[in-house]
Design a protein that fits this description.
single chain, 436 residues, mainly alpha, two-stranded antiparallel sheet, two-stranded antiparallel ribbon, 65% helix, globular
Length: 436
Amino acid sequence: MLQKLFGFDPTQHKLRTEVVAGITTFLTMAYILAVNPGIFSALADQGMPTDAVFTATALAAVLGTLIMAIFAKKPFGLAPGMGLNAFFVFTVCLGMGYSWQFALTAVFLEGILFIILSLFKVRELIANTIPVGMKAAISAGIGLFIAFIGLKNCGIIVADQATFVALGHFGDRATLLALIGILLTGMLIVQKVKGGILIGILVTTLLGIPLGVTNFNGVVSAPPSIAPIFMKLEWHNIFTLDMLIVVLTFLFVDLFDTVGTVVGVSMKANMVDEEGKVDGIGRVLMSDAIATTAGACLGTSTTTTYVESAAGVGVGGRTGLTALVIALCFALALLFSPFFLAIPAAATGPALIIVGVMMCSNVLKVHWDDYCEAIPAFFTMILMPLCYSISDGIMLGIVMYVLMNVSAGKRGIAKISPTMWVLFAIFILRYMQKSL
C-alpha cells in the first residue's frame, strides 16, 4: 500500500527515517506560517485579512505537498514561495497599484500555463534558454530584496528625506528585539541547528513579551475562515500588458526557483542519473504547477517546492512518505493560528534577512570576469531592492543582457536565445508605455 501510494519500498527505506525526515523539513520551512501572513499584512487595509492568509498559506502547503507525495512520490515540501510573495504584495499591489484580486488572477494564470508547459514537457526547455548567470542574479537579487524588506520591517533601515534611507534608532524596543533575533537566528544557522530559522522566530517572539512587542491572544483555536479571499479572481484586466508582464515574472521566477531546487536537492540525495537528470522530474514539476493553481484559488501567492526540503533529504528522506508527514504537520499547525498571527515583525524580519543571505549564495555562479554577463547580473540584483521591485530588476537586467551582448558583436549576439529576444522586445514596449 505504502509503495503504491508513496513509492515507499520496505526493502530500501525505513519508516522511522521517512517520518523523521518529514518532521525535519517541516521545522525548517514552518517559518512561512508566520512570515507569509506578515508580508500580506501590508494588504490588510485593502480588504485582504491577514488571518485568512494564514489559513490559505497552511492549506496551500498541505494540498501542494500531498500532491507531491502521491503523484510525484518525492520527499519535497511545498508552500507559498519567498520572493514571489514579496513580488505579489510590494510590486504588483503596492507598486503597480493593482488589487490583490488582480495578483491572485495572475498567479492562477501562471499555474495554468505551468500545467500546459509541463504537459508538453517544455518547462525544462524554457529554463535552459535563460543564461545561468542571469538565473543566479535573479535568485540573488530576490535575496537582497527580501533582506531589505526584513531590515525595513525591523526598523533597522528607515526612510530619510536627505539620503532616501538611513540607519534606524536602536533604542526602539522593536528594533532592539529584531537585532537580538538576527544574532540568535544567525548563530543557530552557523551551528547548523535543524529548524534554526523557526527556532529563531519562536525565541524572539517570546523575548518580545517582556519588552511589550509581542501580544498573545491565545495559542489554539479553530482556523480562521478563508472565505474573504477564496476564489477571489478578477478577470477584466487579463488582456492588459501589465497582466502579461506580471504573469511572465511569476512564471520565470517560479520556473528558475523550482527547477533549481528540484535538481539541487535531488543531486544532494543522489536521486539523479549519470547525466544529472532527475528521475520523474515531469511529475515533480506538474505537482508544483497544480499546487500553484490551487493556491491562487485558496487566496495566496505562488506555491512552490522549497529548498528547505534538503534538510529532510539530508537525514534520509527519499519517498513521498516524507512529503506526507510534512503535509500532516502543516495541517496540525492550522490549529495554532493565534500563536502564529501574534508573531511580530521584529521576529519575522530576522528570518527574512537570513533567507535573503541564503538566496545570495547563487551570486557565485555569475562569471564576474565576463562583463557581458556581469553588468546585466549586477543591474538585476541591485535594482530589485533599490527600485523596490523584483519585476523591474528582472526586466531591466534582461534588457541590459541583450544590449551588452549586442555590443560585443557576433560573439555576443550568438549567445542571445530567441526567448531572450522576445522578452527584450516585450520589456522595451513596457517601458515605452510607462514613459508616455
